[in-house]
Design brief:
The complex is a heterodimer of chains A (525) and B (216). Chain A has 19 helices and 10 strands. By secondary structure, chain A is α/β, with parallel strands linked by helices. Among the domains of chain A are: 47 residues, no CATH class; 199 residues, 3-Layer(aba) Sandwich (Rossmann fold), CATH 3.40.50.10160. Chain A has a 6-stranded parallel sheet with strand order 7-6-5-8-9-10, with helices on both faces. Chain A has a two-stranded antiparallel sheet with strand order 1-2. Chain A starts with a strand and ends in a 5-residue tail after the last helix. Chain B is mostly helical. Chain B is built from 7 helices and no strands. Chain B starts with a helix and ends in a 5-residue tail after the last helix. The model of chain B has no long low-confidence stretch (mean pLDDT 91). Classes of the chains: A alpha/beta (525), B mainly alpha (216). The interface between A and B is large, with 57 and 44 residues.
Chain lengths: 525, 216
Amino acid sequence: MMTCPHCGAANKPDSRFCGECGQPLGVPQGVTCPMCDTPNPPGVSVCTKCGAQLVPPGLSPTDMPLEAGEYGERAAAAEAQPEGAREPAGDSRELEETEAAIGAAEEMVPPWLKKLEGIPGEETPAELEEEDQRELSELPEWLEVPPDLEEMLAEASATASEEEVALAEIPSWLQALRPDQVEGDEEPTGAPGLAEITGLLKGIKGTLGIEPVVAIPRRAMPLPAATPSSASYEKAELFGTVVREAARPGVEVAPRRRVETLMASTVRWIIYLILFAGVAVPLLLGSTWSEANMPVTSATAAMYEAVEALPADSVVLISHDYDPGSAGEMVPQVEAVLHHLMERQARLINVSLTPEGSRLARQVVERVAEEHGYVPGEDYLSLGYVTGVEAAPRTIVEELRSAEWSGFVGTGQDPSLIVEFAGTPEYLRLWLEQVQGPYGLPMVAGVSATADPYARPYYRNEAQRQLLGLMTGLVGAAEYERHSGEAGLALASMDSQSVVHVAMVLLIMVGNVAYFGGRLRGKPS
Amino acid sequence: MSELLSVWLAAILTLIVYSYLLGDNPLYRLAQHVFVGSSVGYAVVVVLHSVLRPRLVEPLLQDAGANWPYLLPLLLCLLLLTKTRGTTAWLGNSAVAFLFGVGAALAIGGALLGSFLPQIQASWVSVSPSSAGGRVAAANNILLAVGTIGTLAYFYFTMGVRGSPGSGLVRFASTVGRWVILITFGAIFGNRVMAYVSLLIERVYFLLGDWLGLLG
């Protein structure tokens, strides 16, 4: 297991990063930056994150920041010691290494820096001292040090002792940190770190926690010996080879992309043309294959039979709930059923739950009524758009039961059949849930192909006969026309629909063959 | 003349809409805006002439004393207009509550009577050929039952956990239900494609027949 140097979490031996904190694990022997705590790999002299100068590991705890004056005291004590005793035996090897490292660092001084050493104008320390004294003599009168400064300071210290000042100035919470006076040489316990030795915070540990490594004078240390592996050498050689290699001409990417784009666009337009030709050619040729061969599903046949079973002068309520988006499918359905209803001499009440549906319905109804000699107001009515959404179907049926409609429908009578043309399943559901279920009226529906999967369960409900018949999309309209023997727009469109469907199936097969063929050859999709 | 103009206008707008095959372009956007604007304008006119005038204004003008109950929906409509300003929006809460209450009551009651209960009853089918009306009908009913149970099992997320009693059976039914759902989605997609092909046929029929006069 490998322990994370940052959070202490246990990680797998081969882990490169800590699974707990995400820090890198591969630099246990590296140097931690004293400024930003970033672990750095061995051998670097500056922090890879903040650029601070790194202090190599191995510093002893005695390398703490020295108070003012301590440097001088320590230097005097060192000079007073004999030459042999000045260097403890244990530190001799460390000093030798340090001197060797300093020598090595001096050797590493670049030539341009060595040249700067002899440039005239560099001021020596003696010259700097003379300059300082010259500047001091030129100080203004108000900035000069008064001759009785020492006497003034002594007088001030006599009036207020240091302890009094500390007690007066230090807040209580800080005063609590001050260690109790202990007798003898016993070390006071408390917060870790150095204790302040002067000032108001004297004796308190852990305050003003200056990082010791920051305050320590920089000492050059020998860099850890790097022992790169053979794999690293190989990678370095490869990197060097790549860097030294002459620049090669770039690959012609743009023309290839253009070609690929052109290919994709061409394929797309070929598909468009196939679909358009599949629609237009049978129409232009006037193909009538479907008129003779198209089968009729049982759902459409059941719808036809429901209309066929109506006695003459039956009142049929027709709801046109579609919009221009689905009119291409719905109008042929409406036209086929209207022809059949008017042949059966049914009286029609046309309503719509959508504003657009009323306009689309009026065009078809008026055209078909004119063909059959139907008189508006007597043989059929167009009530237009009815508001209310959920409430509208129930409102319509209730109103038809009222006395106002007794002349057209009969007193208290319901329509003999409800024909719902729904572009979306929501409107079909409204009629089923608000009228067919509560009132039990017979109902058939023509729906768009999109709504068919939602309408099919209501037709399949043989126990309750919720929908007596169901007609789906343009195909359903064509089936209805064929079953009634009156070819119209829907039946004329069926050859186009069949050709397009066959073309789409072939295109899907070709696309799949190309895709799986490419995968077998190992090419990406 | 007006019919010829409308046919030409419709044909040009149709071609502009199909120009989207070349990419998005200003003409296509223009057709989009024309469609949306004309739809909204038409709806407003329909509401004014088919709803407000004959069903509200005229009854009140003819005999306000007898038709005073019409004032109640008029008041609710006016209260709805207060929703346009934040400071007066609270005045329209009662109208919105009325709309939601009526709508929810009708929707729930209708769904129970028109969809929920009838469809539960419809799924109670016989799998015996003698009572179902033949082997094909019986096979259809078995398929219906298996599909219904499997789909319900697929959405029964709290059962079928490994180790629980009957988990294998529930997971098998869930797998069946997933396949049934996928087949249903395929059928819906196929129907949608068929619907779009029908719409394309209708437009091509219009362009070739009504506009260009190429069809007999």
